[in-house]
Amino acid sequence: MLDKKFTITIHDDNNFKQINLHKFVKKALSYAVVFLMSLAFIAVTTILYLDYRVDAVAQKKSKLEEAYKLLDQHNNELKLSIAQTQQSLDEKKDELQSVSDKLEDIEDLIGLNPPKGTPLIKRADMTTVTSQQIAVLMKLVPNGSPVPYNGITSKFGYRIHPTLHVKEFHRGSDMKAEMNTPVHATADGMVEYAGFHKTSGYGNLIILDHSFGFKTYFGHLNKVVVKSGQFVKKGTVIAYTGNTGMSNGPHLHYEIRFIQRPLNPFYFVKWSVKNYKEIFEKEENIPWQSLITATSNLKVVTAAAQMQVQPSSPSVLSLREK
After folding, report:
1. Is residue 80 part of a domain?
2. What is the DSSP string of 294-314?
3. Fewer CB atoms < 10 Å away: N or C end of the chain?
4. Are residues 187 and 306 in the same domain?
């Protein structure tokens, strides 16, 4: 019986105590200690694992928060970029509308009426006059002054005739010029008439027939140096000013007609490459768009190229098709 018991002695300062325990209780206590130690180990391990997981979750959360901040920053930048793009698009839209309005003014000015819905770039192409077309217009359509410009003594329009003293429609402009001032052709053309004209009162008269329905008249000349049927280039001296016919002093009577309709020569005298658009607004009796279209396939031939062209006709020497 004694083998199944064991004694526990407890000492303190005053005395000691002895406790006799049964071996079963000893085993139970041993198992309890082992269980408690195991439980403590599991608890410590679990706590350490949970702490590790908490740190991992915290790090992941920190990374997610950082990623969210970056995403939010990127989203704000994207919103700003979209706002700026929208503002730019609105500005471009306003600019395009302004360009469209200006094109519409030009279209009205030159008599162009494109179909509704025509793309803006095509409308711009239709109204654009290239440098080559300008060169052709400046060569074939009368422009510039036939004599050094010193003013006009009698304008285009109704006036009192200086010698007949009656009201009449003056078809041209009387340009100031001294006797025997050289008179130049203002565009390429054929001499339709050159000589004294009895019925018009213009005295010695030259009529040049230009392209596209234009004609120029030079009256009261002293000396004519070209002949009917002769081709003359722009700038060629065709006569010298005088006082022949119904004239009260030396000057040049200068007319421009389009399909026999008289035009105000002053606009054409002041017309040049530098202000070529002004004529579209000032002279509205000419279908300018048709004229521009007609010249779109023509170009001016240089002097070097002229040497290689056979002069089968006078016009070939100055122009050719593209």
Report:
1. no
2. HHTTEEEPPHHHHTTS--SSG
3. N
4. yes
